[in-house]
């Protein structure tokens, strides 16, 4: 069973968004030095929840670009998961992207909602 393990917020201005979420929700947000990506820590290990990230918006808001939180779903085998998504009527919107020994890709469900699958 796939479980939501991460979320992403598409932003136009990462520094502005960082300031907002730190002030509004007390999140800790740190830039990943090798990418244009900011990791969001929503709490500590003693409290249930998930962490996320700020990422540059892809495309234009409302015209194929992300305009919402994007959830990442944990999968055992990214290639099998991609096949199942397509068979169920979903769309693959990116190729598999390697991030060290991890892999992920973005998809859309049958309603046009974006999500990602993530193989650790």
Keywords summarizing the entry:
single chain; 120 residues; alpha/beta; 9-stranded mixed beta sheet; 42% strand
Plain-language structure description:
The chain has 120 residues and is an alpha/beta fold. The chain contains two helices and eleven strands; from the N terminus they run E-H-E-E-E-E-E-E-H-E-E-E-E. Strands 1, 2, 3, 4, 7, 8, 9, 10 and 11 form a nine-stranded mixed β-sheet that branches. A two-stranded parallel sheet has the order 5-6. A hairpin with a 5-residue loop joins strand 10 and strand 11.
Mean pLDDT: 86
Radius of gyration: 15 Å
Sequence of secondary-structure elements:
EHEEEEEEHEEEE
Q: Can you count the helices?
A: 2
Shape: globular
User: Which structural class fits the helix and strand makeup?
Assistant: alpha/beta
Number of strands: 11
Terminal CA distance reads: 15 Å
List low-confidence stretches: none
Give helix % range. Answer: 10-25%
Strand fraction equals: 35-45%
Main sheet overview: 9 strands, mixed
